[in-house]
């Protein structure tokens, strides 16, 4: 099935279980192709929440960065990363360094920050022989599918992210905040409603409360917008969870999520969230040269386990402030 309602320059393929796709004819000048179709591609994303462009033939970081820049209104520098990335150039990153055999469950990028990407862009330079798809799920649909009692609690209380920074697991303080200077880190935390406590060993622990449901800044649609399941302890593989608790203690996990009032989120709730996501997930295996554009507020994304080499570049673009998304809880450090 095809749709040309969004724009005359692109022909979108719609198929059940897969993200919207369009085929590009590689001209050898991907940035020029993207520039000519910028408005049409953005219209497709506005209508459908995401689009996978196949046939563009992206080959390296420089070309990919040029395409990202043509499509975005502005590329962002990542702050508060949960896992390290390699920076190729300003605003162009590797995918998060995460064990290939462990899934990165559905989430909205940087949904715990006060300013987050409105647009995510992914480019596949090397596709793994097995797995590794960047799957997507429509967040208003997920919200409607969740039990009303649960979503109403999260709307009232928000969600709490706790982090314990160390140099072994996840992003370090320097990788997350862009500096090792304690004063600069503390100023950032105060400016962004993050409570913090330095540990005797030099580590840092933080807590921040955010809204779990927001309204899309353009359409006003209510979206399930958070990383509650992905960064929760019960999403970890049991052996990983057991190891981390043994090494760091239950209160010292690299990251964890709670209800906004501080109550623990049970394993049953996390399993429910992930099962609803899975029921509403669409996926398409990467092919080398592919480009994917995702509305980060409307559409959650994941990274599935994989085997073999995989190189996917990422850009965060078109910054959106939480204040412009009708948050349901007051932003406070707790």
From TrEMBL:
Basic and acidic residues: compositionally biased ranges: 15-26
Alphabetically ordered keywords of this record: Antibiotic biosynthesis, Dioxygenase, Iron, Oxidoreductase
Superkingdom, taxonomy of origin: Bacteria
Record bears the keyword Cytoplasm: no
Occurrences of domain TauD/TfdA-like (ranges): 22-316
Cofactors, names only: Fe(2+)
KW DNA-binding (keyword) present: no
Short name of any one Pfam family annotated for the protein: TauD
Region (Disordered): 1-29
InterPro entries in the cross-refs: AlphaKG_dependent_hydroxylases, TauD-like_sf, TauD/TfdA-like
A GO BP entry: antibiotic biosynthetic process
Molecular function, one GO term: dioxygenase activity
Name of protein: Taurine dioxygenase, alpha-ketoglutarate-dependent
Lineage of the species this protein comes from: Bacteria, Bacillati, Actinomycetota, Actinomycetes, Kitasatosporales
């Amino acid at each position: 099935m095809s749709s040309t309602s969004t724009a005359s320059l692109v022909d979108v393929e719609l198929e059940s279980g897969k993200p919207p796709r369009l085929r590009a004819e590689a001209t050898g000048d991907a940035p020029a192709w993207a520039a000519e179709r910028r408005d049409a591609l953005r219209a497709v994303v506005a209508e459908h929440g995401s689009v996978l462009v196949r046939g563009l033939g992206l080959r390296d970081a420089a070309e990919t960065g040029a395409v990202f820049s043509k499509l975005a209104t502005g590329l962002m520098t990542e702050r508060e990363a949960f896992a390290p990335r390699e920076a190729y150039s300003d605003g162009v990153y590797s995918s998060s360094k995460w064990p290939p055999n462990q899934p990165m469950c559905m989430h909205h990028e940087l949904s715990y920050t006060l300013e987050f990407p409105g647009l995510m862009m992914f480019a596949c330079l090397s596709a793994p022989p097995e797995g590794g798809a960047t799957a997507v799920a429509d967040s208003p649909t997920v919200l409607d599918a969740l039990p009303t009692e649960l979503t109403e609690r999260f709307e009232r209380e928000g969600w709490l992210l706790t982090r314990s920074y160390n140099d072994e697991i996840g992003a370090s303080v320097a990788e997350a905040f862009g500096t090792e200077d304690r004063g600069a880190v503390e100023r950032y935390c105060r400016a962004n409603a993050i409570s913090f406590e330095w540990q005797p060993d030099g580590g840092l622990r933080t807590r921040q409360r955010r809204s779990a449901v927001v309204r899309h800044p353009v359409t006003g649609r209510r979206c399930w917008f958070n990383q509650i399941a992905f960064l929760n302890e019960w999403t970890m593989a049991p052996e990983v969870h057991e190891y981390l608790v043994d090494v760091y203690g239950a209160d010292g996990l690299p990251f964890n999520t709670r209800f906004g009032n501080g109550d623990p989120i049970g394993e049953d709730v996390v399993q429910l969230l992930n099962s609803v996501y899975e029921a509403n997930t669409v996926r398409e295996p990467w092919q080398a040269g592919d480009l994917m554009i995702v509305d980060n507020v409307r559409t959650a994304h994941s990274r599935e386990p994989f085997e073999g080499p995989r190189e996917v570049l990422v850009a965060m673009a078109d910054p959106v402030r939480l204040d412009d998304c009708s948050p349901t809880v007051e932003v406070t450090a707790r």
